[in-house]
Specification:
The protein is α/β, with parallel strands linked by helices. The strands form 4 sheets. The chain has a 4-stranded mixed beta sheet with strand order 1-4-5-13, with helices on both faces. A 4-stranded antiparallel beta sheet has the order 6-9-11-7, sandwiched between helices. It is built from 16 helices and 13 strands. It has 3 domains: about 5-50, Transferase, Pyrimidine Nucleoside Phosphorylase, Chain A, domain 3, CATH 1.20.970; about 80-330, Pyrimidine Nucleoside Phosphorylase, Chain A, domain 2 (3-Layer(aba) Sandwich); about 335-425, Pyrimidine nucleoside phosphorylase-like, C-terminal domain (Aldehyde Oxidoreductase, domain 3). It is globular and about 65 Å long. Helix 5 packs parallel to helix 11. Bound molecules: uracil (URA) and calcium ion (CA). The site of calcium ion (CA) has 6 residues, from strand 4.
Length: about 450
């Protein structure tokens, strides 16, 4: 087999066979297929796409490129969730403990943030003492004991994805639906869950900027799951503004604790997306008879404080100081040199928000990394005071910025201002949830 012939085949918009996809990925990993040929192939895929069968073969080949986590000795249905990358999305810290409180099993490997989106692992590390790199057998012990553990990716999970993504990142080949679907699904399948709920974001802060694209990505990921015998549901949710009000690591932990303490009302976008994710996780775990029953169980776990207790137990089991995780003490994690209100320059209605720029503003304050080597400042970030459609007045802040390094503030504020459009007309209402795909 010659790589150049396979590239030519994809350029001619023909299907690659299972063997050809295997040859390509194995060759890329052992460097017999050089970067330039893989880059050419990825670009051909960007333009000509892949059939569902090709995308499934690619996913399986990537999944088998490294370690596969075996969770079969854990009791119950192992259920995972994944978001395609949001701003102010702290759903894992809410939903994972709620599922455990409802009797479910969540053994989750999560990522770090890069660029404008935050990572659950970075958020957890804002809790003093919290360990996110723990051996697999201890991780499983915690899950068996408490029902939930969230750790960083351990071992050599999906090295094909790491190498392919690094190349896509510098060759403008990230935005291909089969490449994104295989990248996400190969990691999720290698992480060992039986059932997966995906949150596909659409909007200004997301990879998918139109609903049609988001639907196509969601449909393909559900189809890949079906073809390999896992239960997968995808919800499509809005990312035309940060999901929650907080953007930043400890600030998002605080918002999760607020929600689990009953301080965030029903109807709030973060609350509702958590409930929808949780509903499908419970249904896939066979722990609820229907969606109403699932929602009832989740609300009971929230209102009784059982969900917050699970989060505290998980943090304690992973070496963290859970005494911060209550309304009395959580502010201590968010202590900064200065909390600065940022006021709008004009009045009217908040008519558009670029969620990616909000995420970038928080990153510039120190909440995220521009490169993998950057260190995160856990306390900094911002807390939104207005949402899309709200009336804004020059004496009412758009957000509160949590600043530790004043030298970083000016650029972050400028980025923040560039994220808004304020108009005289009240904009049309923007839905939070667009669709549910699968099951
Ligand atoms: N997230 C991933 O994990 N992979 C992609 O290709 C895009 C988003
Ligand atoms: Ca997306």
């Amino acid at each position: 087999m010659r790589t150049v012939d396979l590239i030519e085949k994809k350029v001619q918009n023909e299907e690659l066979t299972t063997e050809e996809i295997s040859f390509l990925i194995k060759g890329f990993l052992d460097s017999t297929v050089p970067d330039y040929q893989m880059a050419a192939m990825q670009m051909a895929i960007v333009f000509n796409g892949m059939s569902d069968r090709e995308a499934t073969d690619l996913t399986m080949e990537m999944m088998h490129s490294g370690d596969i986590v075996d969770l079969s000795d854990l009791k119950g249905v192992k259920v995972d969730k994944h978001s395609t990358g949001g701003v102010g999305d702290t759903t894992t810290l809410v939903v994972a403990p709620l599922i455990a409180a409802c009797g479910g099993t969540v053994a989750k490997m999560s990522g770090r943030g890069l660029g404008h989106t935050g990572g659950t692992i970075d958020k957890l590390e804002s809790i003093p003492g919290m360990q996110v790199e723990i051996p697999l057998d201890k991780f499983k012990q915690i899950v068996n004991h408490i029902g939930v553990s969230v750790i960083g990716q351990s071992g050599d999970l999906d090295p094909a994805d790491k190498k392919m993504y690094a190349l896509r990142d510098v060759t403008a080949t990230v935005r291909s639906i089969p490449l994104i679907a295989s990248s996400i699904m190969s990691k999720k399948l290698a992480a060992g869950a039986d059932a997966i709920v995906l949150d596909v974001k659409v909007g200004s802060g997301a990879f998918m900027q139109t609903l049609d694209q988001a639907r196509a990505l969601a449909t393909l990921m559900v189809e890949i799951g079906k073809r390999v015998g896992r239960r997968v549901v995808a919800i499509i949710t809005d990312m035309n503004q940060p999901l929650g009000m907080a953007v930043g690591n400890a600030l998002e932990v605080r918002e999760a604790v607020e929600l689990l303490s009953g301080r965030i009302p029903k109807g709030d976008p973060l609350y509702e997306v958590c409930m929808l994710l949780g509903t499908h996780m419970l249904l896939l775990s066979d722990l609820a008879s229907d969606a109403d029953d699932a929602r009832q169980k989740l609300e009971t776990a929230l209102e009784s404080g059982a969900g917050l207790k699970k989060l505290q137990q998980m943090v304690t089991a992973q070496g963290g100081d859970a005494s911060y995780l209550c309304m009395q003490r959580i502010d201590e994690l968010c202590k900064v040199r200065e909390i600065r209100p940022i006021y709008p320059k004009t009045e009217g209605y908040l008519s558009a928000i670029n969620a990616e720029r909000i995420g970038t503003a928080a990153q510039m304050l120190g909440a995220g990394r521009a490169t993998k080597a950057d260190r995160i400042d856990p306390a900094v970030g911002l807390v939104m005071k207005k949402r899309l459609g709200d009336a804004v007045h020059i004496d009412e802040p758009l957000c509160m910025m949590y600043i530790n390094d004043p030298a970083k503030a000016d650029a972050a504020i400028e980025e923040f201002y560039s994220a808004f459009m304020i108009s005289e007309q009240k904009p049309a209402h923007c839905p939070m949830v667009y669709d549910v795909i699968g099951e």
